[in-house]
Amino acid sequence: MHSFPGVVAVGYINEAIDERDPLKTLDSLLLPTARIKDVDPDSAQHYQDVLYQAKTQKFMDPQSASKILWLDEIQHAVNEANKDMDKAKHWVTLVVDVNEFLEKEKQSDILSVLKSAVGNTNDVMPECADRYYDTLAKAKEQKSKSVSTEGSWLKLNLQEKYDYYYNIDSKESSWVTPESCLLKESWLMGKEIEAFWKGHKQRASYMHRRQMFIDNIPSVVKIQSWFRMVTARKNYLSRLKYFRDHNNEIVKIQSLLRANKARDDYKTLVGSENPPLTVIRKFVHLLDQSDLDFQEALEVARLREEVVTKIRGNQQLEKDLNLMDIKIGLLVKNRITLEDVISHRTKLNKKKGGEMQILNNTDNQGIKSLSKERRKTLETYQQLFYLLQTNPLYLAKLIFQMPQNKSTKFMDTVIFTLYNYASNQREEYLLLKLFKTALEEEIKSKVDQVQDIVTGNPTVIKMVVSFNRGARGQNTLRQLLAPVVKEIIDDKSLIINTSPVEVYKAWVNQLETQTGEASNLPYDVTTEQALTYPEVKNKLEASIENLRRVTDKVLSSIISSLDLLPYGLRYIAKVLKNSIREKFPDATEDELLKIVGNLLYYRYMNPAIVAPDGFDIIDMTAGGQINSDQRRNLGSVAKVLQHAASNKLFEGENEHLSSMNNYLSETYQEFRKYFKEACNVPEPEEKFNMDKYTDVVTVSKPVIYISIEEIISTHSLLLEHQDAIAPEKNDLLNELLELLGEVPNVESFLGEGAVDPSDPDKVNTLSQLAKTEISLFLTSKYDIGDGEAIDGQSLMIKTKKLIIDVIRNQPGSTLSEILETPASTKQEIDHAADMVSRAVLDSRTPEDMKHSQSMVEDAQLPLEQKKRKIQRNLRTLEQTGHVSSKNKYQDILNEIAKDIRNQRIHRQLRKAELEKLQQTLNALNKKAAFYEEQINYYDTYIKTCLDNLKRKNTRRSIKLDGKGEPKGTKRVKPVRYTAAKLHEKGVLLGIDDLQINQFKNVTFDISSTEDVGIFDVRSKFLGVEMEKVQLNIQDLLQMQYEGVAVMKMFDKVKVNVNLLIYLLNKKFYGK
């Protein structure tokens, strides 16, 4: 506890400190009540500075409860200030004495000064006096050189906070900077003298220790050796313990390092232009075919066959169901007899029961099940179809040599069969190459104006759309359109009718229904008259608003699903755009994009929106159908999108929809970006990673499943148009056709004994055998094989396989080094063991996947013989320019590296293909199940008809056992009309480029075909037959339903659809 007077003194002292007045602070320190000891009046300024610093620190301390200095703290500060004073005086004395002795050159007095300055006098050695003096004198002399003017004041800094000044002349000292203070710059100051002394002591200590080590070198060496040993053992045991404690982590790190090394090696293999042999050796095992490879290849082949068979079966079922639709429709109108319908029903039930499957699987073993003498011919067919498949120019030319109706059937059957409906990457790649070649050929030869692609019906475009809406592209359309289309169909309250006349009539009907009285409004009005009624306008505006809202949803689904569009369709759009630009360089970007839009939207998507049930976009139950309101809603949306895609505004007869023109323009801009981006796809070579070596490194040969009838038909067409598609005599196609000779019939194709000559139903049996599918394993005529001439490329392949065998077992940094270094006994033994393992694996390999006999024989050679054969082959290849010894045969190593890369990609593609085939097969099975459900529905309907017929006690006898043809159906004779007569009846409206007075010279022969509802129409001019077309009653009824009043036949004859249907019904169905 402080006494009260002491507290008062503390207050005075703190007040004086705060005022920064040194004299007042001194007076308060000298107060008797303060009892502060050892206060020196000469140090008043320093007391003020130290006390102020102490109080400032206390004030800044957050843990201090009091912010003033108490007596004990004040006394401590005064003591510290006094110590500073003593230290300053001591250093002043040292500086003055040293500098004065240096100026007076008194070497002996330096020792006494230094001894007084250090704590341990033994540190100052008399024998070093001269060295002390010389060192200090040099330092002073060096410092004096840079001084021009100087005073008599010395400055000493204490604790980096306080400056002490001393005048050597007047012996005056001060803690503040004196007036007109000039420092004695030439003198050595305390820090410099101190630094000299510390350096001297350090050197002396170092020399002493060094001398001790020199005197004890043997002992030092022993100590160092022992210490290093102990340290090394300690570090080793510590490291060992660390490794044991982190064993799992170390394994992971090692795996990571190995993986990084392998990854770097693989990057070198993939990215380096010339990968080294050491890297290639590490990955050469990837070229081996494992059991899994064979199993996957066999599974792919099996699934591919099943998919192709199922596609063909479903297509046939679909055609038969369409025919049944017609037959039942005609039955309802009494156009045909019930026996016709029952006959077709029996055929459907047979197919449903599996007859078609049995027929298709009668022979799927290829040439093995045919007679021996036909083997060579069928092998030539395999080479022929391989040539057609891999060289698209032949088929592209053939397509345009045939009439359009014949080429369509050829495309739908033979071409898609030849490419297995693009069921794997290779065949999709080749089919796209055919589409590209054919499209470029068609544009080059048949397109005269840019708009011909839009206004006409190009064959290749039709092929592309048909293919992409088939089994492979159907799922895409479902994903793209099904959700929004289903939403439109399910919305029962949605009514879109943009026809003012129809809206008007519906309004009038509604009025009369509600009132029960006839309205005074006219029933027949024009569009302009209908629009004069406010009610019609309001309903029309509501429909337009609904139309815009629903169209936005469909558009959004299309735009956001660009990635769902099949790659093949996008690529053909790109080819189409580029080909049109090349032929018509002046065509604008908008014109080109409209053509792309015509393909992508109008031809591919639009029909699926209008008739989603017809394109399997939505699931329909058997017997279910879309009603007229739903169909009109979908048609309205499709119409708006069609106008937007072609940037066509509503004008003329659609003037009442002109309020949507701004919307059409905005939508076109979105479509424009979409069509432009759709064409931004890589080339098939990059997409599928295909090149000329692809077939060489694949495990299995390409296989197609084709009927005998299609083989014979293709052979016949090739011979018929041989001059046009292969004009060069030495063309390989001509060589193969010459080997095949004349077109065989089914019996000669199968060979003698295939059909019993005494079979009374021989014709029917041959007809069934013609539809038999066989598998053709396609091969090139110039593949490596026994007895075949080995060209440079085939020799390259054989040499690569030999090199792979050698580098597995013999190390070396270059191929030349390996070939020149003799193989050791161990290497020969290891190589022989590898070849035995390969022979075991080859024994399990299916026949169609085995290597040729010459390659098998090469594989059995010893290591040294293989090396000699490689050297001979390399010399031959160098002469042909395939390799060069100058770069140590790096070219062939690059080819091996490429094979390794392709093999890996091939395995990935095969796995993806397996998954895709399984998905496709599941979808096809679902579709087949739907068709069977439809058959059951029709079956029930026909049974009901039979029951009704029996109740009416009909006299007609109907044969239901399926063993013979039903009776009662007679084929109607053909009818003949002149164009003038048909014009008189109103059926014919006009003929392009022909005057009415010449109609009498034109006749039309109309005859029914064996297919119900199909009619042949032949035209003659002055008795000379000109052209022939087929009419399908179903197509005519569809046109009638859609309101198409006029159609064209022969691309020039305009006919009235309604009156044509009436004429056909009257002449061929009796009504």
TrEMBL record:
Keyword vocabulary terms for this entry: Coiled coil
Segments forming domain Ras-GAP: 413-646
Domain WW: 147-180
Annotated coiled-coil segments of the chain: 907-934
UniProt xrefs under SUPFAM superfamilies: GTPase activation domain, GAP, RGC domain-like
GO CC terms, sorted: cell cortex
MF terms in GO: actin filament binding; calmodulin binding; GTPase activator activity
Gene Ontology biological process terms from the UniProt entry: mitotic actomyosin contractile ring assembly actin filament organization
Ubl conjugation among keywords: no
InterPro entries per record: IQ_motif_EF-hand-BS, RasGAP_C, RasGAP_CS, RasGAP_dom, Rho_GTPase_activation_prot, WW_dom
Record's protein name: IQ motif containing GTPase activating protein 2
Species the sequence originates in: Monodon monoceros (Narwhal)
